[in-house]
Amino acid sequence: LEHGAHLDQPNRARDCPLLLIAMNPMNTICLLTYSSLKCLAATAVVKHGIPYRGQIPQTLETFVNYHDATF
């Protein structure tokens, strides 16, 4: 996490480190410390099915794709 890992970037099974860490009763990590507004926004776009492909700059589209388990 200290080196820039994204807590909200799902794997192909749609598991996000954020949820796995939050569900661990032994967790002592403050998750808000490692969450950025940019990541939260990308996750919200994907979660709510907001169309973005071809609508936003390519670099931003690539970033949002990182937060989309179906991509």
From TrEMBL:
The lineage of its organism: Eukaryota, Metazoa, Ecdysozoa, Arthropoda, Hexapoda. This is Protein fem-1-like protein c.
